[in-house]
Amino acid sequence: MEKPLELSRYCVPFTPFKKRLEDALVCLVSTAGVRKKDDRPYVLEGDTTFRTIGGEVVAEDLAVDDTHYDHGCIDKDLNCVFPIDRLRSLGREQRIAGLTEQHFAMGFSQNLKEVRDTTVPQIARAVVATRPDAVLLTGG
Amino acid sequence: MQGIPTVLITVEPEESAQARPPRALYPKGFIAGHSLGRPRDEALQKWIILDALGLLTADPRPGEVVARDYS
User: Fold this and answer.
1) Predicted-complex ipTM score
2) Rounded to a whole number, what is the distance in Å from the CA of A38 to chain B's nearest CA?
3) Is residue A49 part of a domain?
4) A80 Cα distance to chain centroid
């Protein structure tokens, strides 16, 4: 198994952005418990797995499994935490180049060691494979 | 491994700051469940996204959570 990347405890892992936003493909990554409606639900008590969300989906295709934040807004509009439709709209307006072919999400977990050692490296490798120019991260 | 530029939208700025994110935006007053603003308010949600993505091209402030008011 590949050893997890060890981050410095003192330095911020900063990667410069060298493109124009108008030329950038953006990947969306969220910890809001988002998944496609036909995908496997998250375990509400704790889940260290992640879900891949195709770039073609719209917010209406998505569901949330979570009991840790108020769903009053996302029940009306999931873009409140996972702004897939808004990013696509910005692509149409040529404010960004567009979206990557895949996006990623995970749910609630207190198993921070497994999240850090396993889940996050898996998500990072999956994100790299989509070849984004930038990643937008959202929580709940 | 090659790095990828990231930017975070957070509603928990103090917790996020502890992780020293390379770029982060805190829309003031927003809470978990609507970190991108009100439901179906497309203009506000896109404004916040563009402000967040704008941190990619702004002067670097690594480790800092930038707070902005959208009221």
Assistant:
1) 0.95
2) 22
3) yes
4) 14
